[in-house]
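Box 4.2: Ligand-aware structure prediction
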Amino acid sequence: MNTFGKRLTLTTFGESHGKAIGCIIDGVPAGLQIDEAFIQSELNRRKPGKSKLETGRKEDDKVEILSGVFEGVSTGTPIAMIIFNTNQKSKDYENVKNLFRPGHADFTYFHKYGLRDYRGGGRSSARETAARVAGGAIAKLMLRELGIEIQSGLCEVDGIKAESIDFEYAKNSKLYALDPNKEKIQEEAILTAKENHDSVGGVVLTTATGVPVGLGEPLYYKLDAVLADAMMGINAAKAVEIGDGVASTHLKGSENNDEITPEGFKSNHSGGMLGGISNGDSIIIKTHFKPTPSIFQEQDTVTTANEPVKCNLKGRHDPCVAIRGAVVCEAMMALVLADMTLLNMGRKMEHLRTLYSRS
Ligand code: FMN
């Protein structure tokens, strides 16, 4: 299963050390201005090697559009995009060819398929998420025309929590930190872990503003459920919270309910969704990422023949995957919301009358 979505679908292909990765995004309505510079700028935000806080793999992540766009505008046909891999160092993975890296997907891929592309993790590598970001950029262009904007940033690194949230600040922070006062100690935590040949986890806060009431399908394609699926499907994501999430389980109903006034909701504990349908308030999601599995400390593992062995890794790895994960969270939220806007179009007769009535 390499396809995501119902009306707007994203199919990705490619492996970490293969020739290329890419995606096909289908269902984009004709007539959308496709700003290639914007798609590239989104990929640049996710691309590796921008600072010491990220993997040293240096990929340009130059995207090429192969189809579905004519004279800068979507044609309503599938949009295919490709990104060639240029900076693979597959020999770094020769020593893990016959063993399983703890915390990575090697063990499960091998036992599921009976073989695995060990070079950089093959398809299980988060290199694939560049293709999601390319597809997500198209979804963002579509949503932007509808007044929906998506932003993200890190609200926690190695247990160090943000106490204030500033999405504008996060845009120019090396670690997409949401709290300017916590950025320095969060950065130090990442660099200390890296010096100790270790890694840290982090939490990404993603929000969408300008979302209309009514996105989300009862009962099996609820907006919160699909967003949770989209976020949990990102490599290394281990938990997702909608609105106040886990904290809401510690509140009384009187504290947790978002009271309603003629001007709108008084608060947003619900994260902008009720009954699986958007309520017109901002969508708020937290995605919790585990520490990067590839670390440079000796660890116990087994070979493909199930013999005990020590695992000593080479290669280049992110000390905190949540940083680049933030851009992927935005892409996944964009894909879900774009899909939901298209799905919602036939839900009222007035939608159909607007489209088809001749009078
Ligand atoms: N894992 C690594 O071992 N090294 C990396 O450099 C690395 N970079 C990542 C970058 C991003 C943006 C993301 C989202 C994840 C990254 N991961 C990295 C995590 C692995 O891909 C992931 O842990 C692995 O596929 C196992 O899947 P699971 O953790 O979801 O069970």
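In the box above, the bound molecule is flavin mononucleotide. The chain has one domain: 3-356.
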